[in-house]
Amino acid sequence: MSNFAREMAFYTAYHQENTNVWIHVFGVPLITFTAFVPLAWLELFSVSGVPVTAATLLYLYSVQYYLRTDLLFGSIATVLYGALLFAAHLVAAEGYVLGAVVFAAGQIIGWTSQIYGHLHYEGNKPAFFESVYQSFISAPLFIIADLCFHYGIKSEVQDKIHQELIASGKLRKEPGNFYKAQRA
């Protein structure tokens, strides 16, 4: 099994119920976008007159990991999160007050929805209690994979994840299971 499938199986063990997965599909990019806003204020250096911010470095670190982990999912993530980075820089350029409001509102809505989804729909704690790295760096890639699997893209990887969940005893059987529903 690929390293990606193994990591995705860990993530998927916490995200199997349909509603919670869809909450994450919207919440994770919201958290990512709004986290980029204050980081866009931190100009670290410039390259040929182009400022490089902490948000840009976080983006570059993340997408190099995404592309090495899975080329298709990483390519989609590069475009999606690149657009969010661009939008965050636009918001940051509007000033600290607007940026702070966008940051605070997005983080509160994003994190509250994530925690609610886990407690109400999954009946478990969020994965960040076990792996902070996966929650902040990997989750944005994993929601891309979730969407691709939902539409039948790369089903062979989904099969490996499904088998890993069965083997580890972590595939839940309740109605509304995101992965079970896709396999029917």
UniProtKB/TrEMBL annotation:
For this UniProt entry, which segments traverse the membrane? Answer: 21-41, 79-112, 132-153
Q: Name one GO biological process term.
A: sphingoid catabolic process
Q: Which InterPro entries match?
A: Mpo1-like
UniProt entry keywords in alphabetical sequence: Membrane, Transmembrane, Transmembrane helix
What GO cellular component is one of the record's annotations? Answer: membrane
Task: Return the protein name.
Answer: PRS2 protein
